[in-house]
Amino acid sequence: MAIPQNIKDEMKARRRDFHKYPESGWAEFRTTAIAAEILEKIGWKVRFAKDFIDPDEVMGYNVVPQKERTRAISQGADKKTLAKIGAYTGLAATLDTGRKGPVTVFRFDIDCVETEEAHDAEHLPEREGFSSVNPGWMHACGHDGHAAVGLALAEMLMRKKDGLRGKIRLLFQPAEEGVRGGYAMAMAGVADDADYFIAMHLGLGKPTGSVSGGTGGFLCSTKFDADFRGIGAHAGGEPERGKNALLAAAAAAVNMHAISPHSGGATRVNVGVLNAGEGRNVVPPNAHMKIETRGESAELAAYVYAKAKEVIYGAAQMYDVDVSISKQGETITAESDRKLAALIMSAAEGAEGVTLLEEYRSMAGSDDACWLMRRVQEHGGLAAYVGIGASTAAGHHNNRFDFDEEAMPIALEVLLNSATLLNGTGGTPAVLDN
Amino acid sequence: MAIPQNIKDEMKARRRDFHKYPESGWAEFRTTAIAAEILEKIGWKVRFAKDFIDPDEVMGYNVVPQKERTRAISQGADKKTLAKIGAYTGLAATLDTGRKGPVTVFRFDIDCVETEEAHDAEHLPEREGFSSVNPGWMHACGHDGHAAVGLALAEMLMRKKDGLRGKIRLLFQPAEEGVRGGYAMAMAGVADDADYFIAMHLGLGKPTGSVSGGTGGFLCSTKFDADFRGIGAHAGGEPERGKNALLAAAAAAVNMHAISPHSGGATRVNVGVLNAGEGRNVVPPNAHMKIETRGESAELAAYVYAKAKEVIYGAAQMYDVDVSISKQGETITAESDRKLAALIMSAAEGAEGVTLLEEYRSMAGSDDACWLMRRVQEHGGLAAYVGIGASTAAGHHNNRFDFDEEAMPIALEVLLNSATLLNGTGGTPAVLDN
Amino acid sequence: MAIPQNIKDEMKARRRDFHKYPESGWAEFRTTAIAAEILEKIGWKVRFAKDFIDPDEVMGYNVVPQKERTRAISQGADKKTLAKIGAYTGLAATLDTGRKGPVTVFRFDIDCVETEEAHDAEHLPEREGFSSVNPGWMHACGHDGHAAVGLALAEMLMRKKDGLRGKIRLLFQPAEEGVRGGYAMAMAGVADDADYFIAMHLGLGKPTGSVSGGTGGFLCSTKFDADFRGIGAHAGGEPERGKNALLAAAAAAVNMHAISPHSGGATRVNVGVLNAGEGRNVVPPNAHMKIETRGESAELAAYVYAKAKEVIYGAAQMYDVDVSISKQGETITAESDRKLAALIMSAAEGAEGVTLLEEYRSMAGSDDACWLMRRVQEHGGLAAYVGIGASTAAGHHNNRFDFDEEAMPIALEVLLNSATLLNGTGGTPAVLDN
Amino acid sequence: MAIPQNIKDEMKARRRDFHKYPESGWAEFRTTAIAAEILEKIGWKVRFAKDFIDPDEVMGYNVVPQKERTRAISQGADKKTLAKIGAYTGLAATLDTGRKGPVTVFRFDIDCVETEEAHDAEHLPEREGFSSVNPGWMHACGHDGHAAVGLALAEMLMRKKDGLRGKIRLLFQPAEEGVRGGYAMAMAGVADDADYFIAMHLGLGKPTGSVSGGTGGFLCSTKFDADFRGIGAHAGGEPERGKNALLAAAAAAVNMHAISPHSGGATRVNVGVLNAGEGRNVVPPNAHMKIETRGESAELAAYVYAKAKEVIYGAAQMYDVDVSISKQGETITAESDRKLAALIMSAAEGAEGVTLLEEYRSMAGSDDACWLMRRVQEHGGLAAYVGIGASTAAGHHNNRFDFDEEAMPIALEVLLNSATLLNGTGGTPAVLDN
C-alpha cells in the first residue's frame, strides 16, 4: 500500500518540527497538544493521560508543569488544549469502526533525551535549521520520528476506515527515556482490551531498509536516585562536627560497582552521576547519585537492585548520614509473540524500501513498552515490538545522532499494512490461526 | 579619638551597598572601581593591581573579565574607571605626608563567598533590603565591612594628615577566599617598604566589643582541583568501552581522607566538592573535585599535599583515566609580632565600645594575609593581624551570616588610633622600643 | 568389558590410601613414587617429570622439596624412587605394543586441595579411618580416585596388551589445583605425538551412573598473587613514617571487584585471600593477596587480568608502597572434539552401572588439561574431557567432600573400552571416520 | 646508695633468662612462678593474681592456660608454684615493716611482644645466646628488664628493711602489651591503700643516663577486634551465593582511616592486622581485623572509637555479612603528680650513671599503668611514671630491639632511693610537704 507523497512530506516536516522543539519526559506539553489537535481534527477520539492514569503509578516525574506549559505556549502550543492536558502529558486516540472486530493498539513514545545537541554545520539538523532550541534537550533517540509516523498512520487509517473493522488505538506515550511513563500507561489499562499490541522503534543499529518483526530479550532495569544528607562544618576549624555525605556517596559508588556478578546471567550497575558538596572548605553536607541497575531477567534485576540498596544504606551508616532512595523508573523484559511477528513480516514484504527482513532480534537495551507488552499478553492478546532500521549519523543518545528520514515511510507502510491485515474486513489472517 | 556620626553612617551605607553587590574573587570590578573613585576623590594616590602584580603569581583566576565588567557597569560601576582596572581587581592607595617617618600598610580584603544568600525575612539583610542580587554570591565573611572600614579609615586619616608623618598605604586585596590573591599582592612587593603591617578581620567567633591585638597560628593551606577525564560508553550495552572517571574520583576521595595523621601536628584534608558524570546510563567520562589540604606548619602542609597528589594519581591509574591537578590557592602560616600587637592593644584601650582585650589569639583557619605578614617580617618590618569581635547571626560562610554593624566603628577607631600612634608626629611609641 | 572384583577392590584400597596421605600441588612425592613403583612393576616404561619438563614452564611452585620428601618417606614412600623423582613430581608411563597404530594419551591429575578435612564421625573417610593425616591438605576434588583409576587402567591394559596396537601413555599430572602443572606438561611435548587424548574427572555435579563424553566451555583463568611492601611504624607515635600496605591492598581488593563487566561474556574476579599487617599498633608494612581472574574466552580473561593489574599498581601508588605481581597459574579454554566424544559414548554404552549418557556438557570451571587438549589438537590429534558422574557428600573443595566409590569401576570401564576401541587391533572405529 | 656488683650481675642474668623465655600477655606462667619463688624465698609475702583479681575485669585473655603451663614446666617453672598461680598470671608482693608509715607501691610489667626476634649474629641477644626460644614471642619492649629490676629492688629493700617504715608492695603485672592487664589489677584494689605509686619504664627513646621523674600525656587507647562472617561460594561457578567478608573488611579498613580528625586534639586509628579468606577461588567467608583507636583525651578516644564502630557496622551491612566487635584492651590517660616526680628527681640526683634529669615528659604512647595511677590518685595518693633512659639497638617493638643493660642499675638505684626517701624512718621528705 504505497504512501502518498504529501503524507511523506507532511510526516518529514512534523518530525523536523518535533526535533526543533524537543521535550523531556513528562514535559511533552507541546508535542501532546499538537498531536491532540491533529488527531481530533481528522476524527480520532482523544483521551488525555490525566483522565486515565493514576498519579500513584507515575515514576520519575520531576518537571514543574506550569513552567513547561508556559514554554510550550511560547513555542506554539495551544493554550486551550494545554488546559485539557493538565499535569500529565501523553494521550490515547481511538478509531472505532463500529464493526465487530479485534482491538489493535499501537504505541509511539514522544519524549527526548537530556543532552545538548551539537550545533555545528557538520550536524544535519543544525545545517538544515531544525536543531533543538531547548537547551540540554535533544531528540537523540528518534522519538520525533515515532511521533510523526504515528500521526501519519492516524491519517492513513482514517482514509481507509471503511475497509476496517474493530477498533484501533494509538498511544502517544510520555517519558520512555528513563523508562518512566510506560508503567503508568500499562497500569491504566489502556491496552487491556487489545487483541494485538505493536510498539515500533526506528534505528537500533540497523540500516534503512531492514525490518525486525519481533524483538525480545530486553534488559530489566531499575533507575533510581540516592540522596545523602549529612551536616556541613568548617573543614579546617571543626571537621568533627560535620557528617560527610560526599564520602558516604563515594564509598557507595565504588562498592556498588563491586557487587558480585551472577551465574544466572548478565547484570549491570552504573552510578552515572554523582554531585556532592558545597564549597572547598566545607565538610560536604549533601550528595546526590543517579544510578541504574540491570539484569537479563527479572530475578537478576531484582538481585542487583537489592544488593545496590544494601550498599547504599551501609555506606550511609559508615558515615552516619541519612540517605533516601527514590525509584525514578523501572522496566521489565518481554518477548514478542512469534505469530504476531510473523504477521508483521508478511506486512513488511513488498513494502517500498524494505531490503532485509528478520523475524526475531535480541535487544541489548531496555524499553518500557515491555510493561504494555506483558499486560496485553497477560490479558490474552498478542504483542510485538517491531524494529524499523534507519541509518544514523551517530549512536543513539549521542549528541550527533540523526536518522535517515527515508526510514519513516517504511515504518508507516509496515504499520499500516499490519493494521490492514489485522483489522481488515477480510477477517483474521491465516498466519495468526492455529 | 571619637568617630563622627556622619562617618559612621556613611560606613554603614557603604557596607550595605557592597553587601548587595557582592563580587567573588578576581571579579571585584565594581568594588574596586567604587573604592578607587572614593580614594582618589579625597586625595589618595591609587595604583591598580594590574599595574604592579605579576600575572604569573596570580592563583585561582577563573572569571571572564569582559563578562564581569559588563555586570559591574549594570550595577553602577564607572566605565572609565573599569578601563583602568583591566583584568586584575584590587588596588593600593598611598598617603605620603611628605614628612620623614615610618611606612604603615593596612590590608582589607574585598571579595565575597560563593554561596547563595538566604532570602527570607528572618535574615536581616533581606528584611532591610540589602541582600545579594548576584546569584550564588554572598558577603558571608564580613569583607563588605572590611572594605567599608578601609574607606572610612582613608577619610579619617586624610582629615588628620597634618598630624602624621611617613607614609600610610591601604591595600584593597582581591580573592582572599580560596587564599588566592594575597600571594600576588605580596610578591608584587607592595608592602616591602612597610615598617608596620596590619591586617584586620571582623567576627572570628568573638562578640562585638572584643579586640585581639595579635593573631597567629594560621593553618597553612593548599587549595587545588583535580580533573579526571575518562571515556563515556553505554553502561548497559558496552560498559567495557568506558573508562570510569567517577569511580576514580570516588576512590581518590575516600583514600585521600585516609592519609595518615602526622605526629608533628594537626593536618586536614577536605574533598569539598565532587561533580561527576553525564547521564544515568552512561559510564561517567568526567569528574571534578575541589580539594584543600592544611597543616599547622609549612612542613605538615607539604606532607599532606604530597600524599594527596599520590592518592589522586594512583586512583587515576586504577581506573586508567587521565587526571590533572591544578593549584587554585595557597597560603602559609604566620605569627603577629608581639610588640605591634601590644601597640594595637594600647590603641584599643579606651576606644568606644571596646569591652574585652586580648593580646594573642590562635586562629584555627587560614588567611592569605600571611603572605604579606611574612614578607614584611622578612624585610625587617613588624606585622600583626587584629581581630575585631563582631556578634554574628550565623557562622562565617553560612548563608545566614550577618555581623553586628556596631563592630565597624570599633574597627575603625582601633586602626585609626594605631595609625596615629605609629605615624603620629610625636615619634615612635615607647611600646615599640627596646 | 567387565572389571574383575580384585581390580575393583585394589582400586578402592589405593584410593583410600591416597586419600589418607593427600599431597598438595608439586608436593606429590609419595603419590608419584607409589605410582611409579606399581607401573614399573607391571611393565610400563616410566619417565619422571624432572626428565622432560622445563623448569621455566613450571608455575606456582612453592614447596620445599627436601621437606616434602622427608615427609613422604615417613609416610611410606621409597627413598630410591624419590631420588629419581628429583624436585618435580608427576610422571609419564608408556605401553608400546610394538604394533603400528595410533598413540592414545590419558591424563590423571594427582594433587589435593589445600583445605582441612572434616574430622567428625559424620564424614565417611573419618568414620572408616582414611581421612587425611596431613594438616591443611585434603583430597576434596576426587584426584585420589583419578590416580587409583589410572593405576587400575594400567593393569587392565597390560593384561589386554596382546589385543592392542600403537602406543598408550598415561600421564600422572601434578598441581592441577591452581591450574599450575598442566602447562609444563603440555609444553614438554609429552602429548605431541598423540592421535587421541582423553582427560577424565569424577563428580562435577552429576550422580553416579552418568557419563558425559565431551566437555567444553572451560573458563580461561589466571591465578596470581600480589605482594605489597610498605614500611612499618608505631601507629600512635609516628604514623607518618609508615607506608600502609594493608590499606593499599584493601583499596585494591574493593576496586578490583569493581572492574566493569564486559558485553562479550562473563568475567570473574576473586580476591580470595588477603593477609596483611604485623601487630595491632604497627602501621602494616606488608600485605599479600591471592587473586584469580576468569573469562569465558581468552580475550575476556586477558581483559579482566589487565584491568586487575592496573588497579593493583594504582592502589600501590596511592599509598606509596611497592607491589609485585606473580602469576601462580593459568589456563585456557578448550573444547572436546565431538568425534572423540562420540567414540567415548559408544565405549560407555553397556558399561556396568552407566545409566545416563550425554555427548556434550558445558563446564563452569577451569582445568589445566585444556593446555594438553589444545596442544594435541594443534598437532592434529583429537581430544576429549570425559566427565564420570559420582554422587558426592558435599560440593567439590568443601571439607566434607567425598565421592561414591562405585563411580571408579565405571570410569575404569569407560576408559578401558575407549582404549580398546581406539587401539584395538581391529582398526579405526567407524565413528571416527568420515 | 651504690648497688653491689653481685646484685648487678644477678639482675643482668635474670634479665637474660627472662629474655630467652619471653611470655606473651596472660601467658607469663614461667615468669610469675620464678618471681614468686625468689620473692618468697627472701621474705616477701606473695599473693597471686588469681586470688585477688575479678575474672570479669580481665581483657584480651586469649591463652590456653593448660598449654602454657605445660610449656612453662618444660622451660623450668616449678609445678607446685604453677598450681598456685591457676589461670591468671601476675602477683603482688608486700613487705610490711611493722612500723607505722606510708604505703608505697611499685609496678613492673612482665609480658613480651608478639613478634619474631631477629636471629642473626648482628643481634646481640642472638650473639650472646639469650635470644627467644619461643617462636613469635620476643621481649621487644624491655619488660624483661623491668622484671629483673623489680626482683633486685625486692632484695635490696629486704636488706634495708630495718631502716624502713610502713609497707612496700611490688606489683608484677601481666599483659601490659595491648593494655589488657592493668585494668584488672587496678580494679582489684591492689593499690587502693597506696600513698605513693611508681611505675617505671626503660628506654622510651632516651639514652642511658637520662631520667624523667614524671611522665604524662599518655594517649587513651582502645584495642579491639572485628570479626566478619560471610558465606563462602565457588568464585567462578556461583559467586552470587557468597557473602564477601573480605570486601566488607577492606571497605571498613579504608573508611575507618578516613574518620575525620578532631579539633580537640590528636586521634589515631590503626587497622594493624587483616586476615581474610580461605582459598584463591572461594568467595571469602571470613575476615578478622585487629584495630586500635587512640585519642589525647578520654573524649577524643571515645569519639574515634564510636566512629570506628559505625564504619565497621556499615561496611558489614554493605556486604550483607555479620560482624562482631570485641574489645581486647583499653587504657586511659594519666598525669604524674609533680610533687612525687620532684621527689624521684631528688632520688635520682647523684645516682651512679645519671647524666640528664628532666622533671616532666610527654609520652606519645599508651600504658595501662594509667589505670593504677588514676585509681591511686582518686584514693588520695600520689602517682608517678618514671622513665629511665636506655640506649637501644632499634625502636620499641622492632625485632632488633635490645637495650643497654647499664640502664638497669640506674633504674634500681633511682627506685631504691625513692623508696628510702618515702618509707625511710626519717619521716616525710620536705619536697612532699605543703
UniProtKB/TrEMBL annotation, chains A, B, C, D:
Binding site for Mn(2+) 2: 141, 143, 177, 201
GO biological process annotation, one example: folic acid catabolic process
Pfam families per record: M20_dimer, Peptidase_M20
Cofactor: binding comment: The Mn(2+) ion enhances activity.
Keyword line: Manganese, Metal-binding
Gene3D superfamilies membership: Zn peptidases
InterPro entries: Amidohydrolase, Bact_exopeptidase_dim_dom, Peptidase_M20, Peptidase_M20/M20A_hydrolases, Peptidase_M20_dimer
Name this protein carries in UniProt: Amidohydrolase
Biological source species: Cloacibacillus evryensis
